[in-house]
Predict the 3D structure of the following.
Amino acid sequence: MIEREESRIQASTESTASNTRSDGGQVERRVAPEVTLARAEETMLHLFWRRFRRHRPALTGAVVLLVLAGICFIVPIFVSEEAANTVEIDAKLQSPSSEHPLGTDAVGRDMLMRCIWGGRISLRIGVLAALIAVMIGVAVGSVAGYNIGLIDNILMRFTEALMSIPTLFILIVLGRILGPSITITTIIIGALAWMSTARIVRAEILSLKEQDFVLAARAMGVQPTRILIRHLLPNVVAPIVVSATLRVGQSIIWEASLSFLGLGVQPPTATWGTMLTRAQGYLRDAPWIAFFPGFLILITVLCVNFIGDGLRDALDPYALR
Amino acid sequence: MTAYIIRRLIQAVPIIMIVSIVGFAIIQATGDPLAAYTVDSSLTKDDIARLRAKYGLDQPMPVQYLNWLKNMLTGDWGRSYYTKMEVKALVFDWLPNTILLAGVSYIMTLSMSTVLGIVTAVRQYSLFDHVITAISFVGIATPSFWMGLMLIIVLAVRPKAAGLPYLPVGGMFNPRVGESLPQVVWHVILPAFTLSFVMTASYIRYIRSSVLEELHLDYVRTARSKGLKERVIFARHVLKNALLPLLTLIGLSVPSLLSGTIVIEAMFAWPGMGRLFWQAAERVDIPVLMALLMFVSVMTVLSSIVTDILYAAADPRIRYS
């Protein structure tokens, strides 16, 4: 049923676009638009959900990630941060047990609580940094793609220049100069992760703006900014969403690397990265200190990547089903 | 060809300029270099003014920038705040070790990933393919330093505890044995493999899809229909085309390889540029930080140019225009 709807919408848009003037088509067109438009929005969501659901890894990833995020954000409501930071020197380096399901670290803090509290910060940094990155990337990419010429040249050279500084190097320098904190770590990661999004958006806009609907809008006297926001950007949503998802994983890994090196979020605040900082010294006596935080990073990034794959497939307008 | 190379080099100039402006802006953000002296009561205002004049700090900003740029280009990179050594000497002392580590790890990456990528493509959907694909998905999502910690547990800590031979986890050679080639080779295995793991994972994905794409092209069918043996089709036709894109990948992986060395060298106490950078970051040793930042950026820009040239030279479909 839905499939038939979809093909009808496609047929009607196609006929409008190519201006074929068969008699039946004209009649269709005169009555169809309102009805199909209303349904089109509904079926778009359905269609998306149907496709996404079929992508097994993505669906699994989404479920696992929801559970993980749920734990990391709900447990801290009921348990105070003390639970993650209470030093119990008598209970140091204990292996996983019923009392401490993930063991304890070098000063006897409960690893499970630290993983949860740390996950809260790691996930938040990942999502917020990705949001910042995508906002900058969309702004730069769309302006560059739309106002071709001097602005495009300047913005793209700037993007290329930033891309040619190996990221971890400039992250470390900025983090060091601006001082380590959760906020600053988030902002600098976001400020350095936007380049690929900008390039994707620019490429999409460049090809889209040559299409007839843009010409039509211009002929109607629509303001360029409005064309960009109302007509062009909605067509780029799919790649933006996919790239935003992938940025989340990347940001989490960057935060962890920075914090692991002692240059990001500072102890005693737990993040999955800071928890690994001193773990190297206890690989023999307490390997679980090193294992769990990194494993959680791995799971999170894996899920995020799968979700990104699923979104890419589900949002692809050229996919057959 | 020569014209193409020259044009690419000219195109790199604005990028390096922007990188250098970013670098200079970062230095400026660290504050007044004479801040420590202005609170020193034994210095009069005149002394400060003389110091300012001596270091050119009384000049307008653009002039200061040009001076700094000139020093950077002529190799006058200043002295480390911390060790008082010349930065240039420091960098070139430690650089060969990084090249060794990155080179070995890159050779590992290329050899593992081409073999695995090709085999998984040829045996698509076999058990082997599924296993390797799963591993490479996990590998892409793994933070390299966590992989390092796990490898240390498996290849060093555990075997040592069990009395088996184990891989060394720090430095370039055992100080009691002295520096020798076998020692260095023995010590490079673990850090190089750690560094290559994540890269190998994404390379496998890349090569697999590249080979699969080629296998479905018309020329393969033609070759089959004229009765060529599969082995010949593969070795003489498919591989050549499928592995060509690898060239671009090699150039593009320079920044991530360099970024990777920071974490890996810090972790395995490998006396290379990454470790130098990390130490400089911890001590806020600005001259060292900036010299390395500029150095790796220029390396990245150059490597992308070399890549393009190689690619153009290897692929007859690309013209030097």
